[in-house]
């Protein structure tokens, strides 16, 4: 369902893109460092879930409709930044007594999963990326429709991204294991994540998003 002649170039490009630090990498790495590997794994699957949704929207042509509308992109950017600011504020205003215990890791993991999904879906640059990137590797030499090819390319991208993020979680989670046993760090881990959410919100607010029309 995809052009095998383009596959080596596509895989090389995806690997290069995965190695470039971005907001998704920051969120996954910081959650692994703050709360442990399990939470990082959930954040990675949250990112993959949003990627699957964006892939479907791109394959169906919905993303392209949004991407050519400057007002829709601006609204998406504002909503995304507001969501991240709300998450950051909730973390910052939490007290030391709110620091999660080890047995609460399941609840924290589910929260980070949802936050990873929403932060990526509300990022207009992620949407535009799928609209602009996947079509470059759609071949006119195949009988398969462009939508079907984009779906397969997107699934391949998401699988590679998930594997990369899980490797990142394994490395960062191991480095941060000692921090989880540090009482002082545990008292401030929510505030650390609050700073991360604020940083992501600022990144989204100052970034320029242009329609592709």
Number of strands: 0
| Rg of Cα set | 18 Å
Order of SSEs: HHHHHHHHH
What proportion of the residues form beta strands (DSSP E)?
Answer: under 5%
Helix content: over 70%
- Apparent shape: globular
Low-confidence stretches: none
Termini Cα gap: 28 Å
Quaternary organisation: single chain
The class by helix and strand makeup works out as: mainly alpha
Largest sheet: none
Q: Would you tell me the overall average pLDDT? A: 83
Number of helices: 9
Task: Describe the structure concisely for a colleague.
With 213 residues, the protein is mostly helical. Helix content is 75%, strand content 0%.
Question: Topology, please?
Answer:
Layout: H1 7-18, H2 23-35, H3 37-60, H4 62-67, H5 70-92, H6 105-121, H7 124-133, H8 146-175, H9 183-206
Please describe what this structure looks like.
With 213 residues, this protein is mostly helical. The protein has helices spanning 7-18, 23-35, 37-60, 62-67, 70-92, 105-121, 124-133, 146-175, 183-206. α3 (37-60) runs antiparallel to α8 (146-175) and α5 packs antiparallel against α9. It is globular and about 60 Å long.
Name its key features:
213 residues, mainly alpha
